[in-house]
């Protein structure tokens, strides 16, 4: 049964958005997805969810969706997400992440939406020291992707200061894994994410895995990241909406578990869980990669009461592998 509350979810046909849509439907929300399918898939949107095909950077598209559906909340996932691409084509990122977000925020405001949840990123911190980073750490992004998201956080802060809109910007660390019930997973074509790529290598979809740099100032020389299961992240979104509806103040919150794993360790765990010794090649550093990014998650725990259920890298990998196997079967592999 629905609660009569409606959410517009931009980018809801993508990896994270599709998991959040499932969580919202389970929480009783009516959901409208607006997505241009540039990296998302129509099949990722469940049948009970309204789908609008269009670019959220186009004000007539997003305004029409707001006018028609009059949402109580907007969750804004749509965007471009590849750090190296942002280095090569910064204008794409300032258009699709900053300018398009401005358009979505403007449309939400025009239709008096009071609750706005934004997909931000740990990339806003740049290259912090190896210690877990809290939200009040300096924001000094080292790539256009991180800057394009930080600008949107700034727009939100300025707009919320003079309107009734309230927002939560969630700074995701490295999102991985798939829905434990097998209903959703990562499908973006040509994904560059470590766990996705390594699972594809383990299943023979790719010839090998390249490790980008083993000369970083980290314990084993490879980069360190804080991997969060996508379903725990989805739960954080539902809690963030409830928090704002309950009168919570604007907030910027880290989404991570608070411990880091090196690229080499992740690869070893994937080899072990998959039971296949796929080939790994050490390559040079990838442009835009910080050595270490680990969250201090104290604030999201205290502010939202968020308690992750899947803080276990083996479980994350198992769910990602299970999803990849279903993709192989559906492709007839
Ligand atoms: N995956 C991660 O580890 C990670 C980490 C930090 C932040 N994020 C952020 O989370 C959000 C979702 O990321 P994801 O991993 O699900 O990526 P994704 O590529 O799977 O999803 C993005 C979705 O947005 C859609 N989209 C892109 N531009 C659009 C536009 N202009 N209009 C309408 N739809 C558009 C795509 O078709 C896709 O469905 C992004 O904003 C990303 O920056 C992701
Ligand atoms: O084939 C690969 C893929 C990745 N890596 C390494 O694995 C680490 C993680 O890389 P990912 O591409 O999986 O993720 P990023 O840390 O680059 O970025 C991810 O998390 C960020 C926040 O931390 C951003 O939000 C971004 O959208 C999201 O892609 C990096 O050191 C990268 O060099 C490899 O060695 N080989």
Automatic annotation (TrEMBL):
Subunit structure, as described in the record: Homodimer.
Organism annotation: Defluviicoccus vanus
Family matches, as InterPro entries: Epimerase_deHydtase, NAD(P)-bd_dom_sf, UDP_G4E
Main enzyme class: isomerase
GO molecular-function terms, A-Z: UDP-glucose 4-epimerase activity
GO BP term, pick one: galactose catabolic process via UDP-galactose, Leloir pathway
Chain coiled-coil ranges: none
Protein name: UDP-glucose 4-epimerase
Family assignment from sequence similarity: Belongs to the NAD(P)-dependent epimerase/dehydratase family.
Domain of life of the native organism: Bacteria
EC identifiers of the protein: 5.1.3.2
Reactions that this protein is recorded to catalyse: UDP-alpha-D-glucose = UDP-alpha-D-galactose
Keywords linked to the UniProt accession: Carbohydrate metabolism, Isomerase, NAD
Reported cofactor(s): NAD(+)
CDD domains: UDP_G4E_1_SDR_e
Every NAD-dependent epimerase/dehydratase domain range: 8-256
Pathway(s) where this gene product acts: Carbohydrate metabolism; galactose metabolism
Keyword NAD found: yes
